[in-house]
Amino acid sequence: MNKRGHVLNGLLLALGLGFILEPGLDAATATTVAEITVPVVLGALFPDVDTAFGRHRKTLHSLPVLAVFLAYPIFFGNLQYVWIGVLTHYVLDVVGSRRGIALFHPLSDREFGFPSGVTTSSKYADLVTVVITAIELAGFWAIHTYVVSLDLDLSAASEAAAGFGL
Ligand SMILES: [Zn+2]
Description:
Blueprint (H helix, E strand, L loop, with lengths): L2 H19 L5 H19 L17 H13 L6 H15 L28 H23 L7 H9 L3
Zinc ion binds next to helix 4.
Pfam families: YdjM
Organism: Halorubrum tropicale
Protein name: Metal-dependent hydrolase
């Protein structure tokens, strides 16, 4: 997917997540949307930095990179929500476009992708992006409702890490 697709995906995802985390049409919802939109969109843009540094769809499209973004809020107390943007970028590349991504780079250069998806220049790219975003939001809603709250207050994990002397 191209930059346009990733920004669209990030914006719609952040908007939807705002309503999932803070249902309603009030200031609290608007505040939540504002809080997560910029980090999610930044995360959604980050992996394609490897078009300039490293090898595209390999260097910054891997699970170790995602793990780094998950670790930052826990260990340093910053970059909250950026991992959501990185994750959604991977999903869009794997499901929405023809070419896969090297999830296990640098251990393996093999690219994983679904046969679904369209070329990044397709006229259906925006539609595919919106459909994938809707499916992602349904997934986040189900997880938030039935599995674990996604309010993502990682301060507890951060304190736990501090307790272990990390
Ligand atoms: Zn990408």
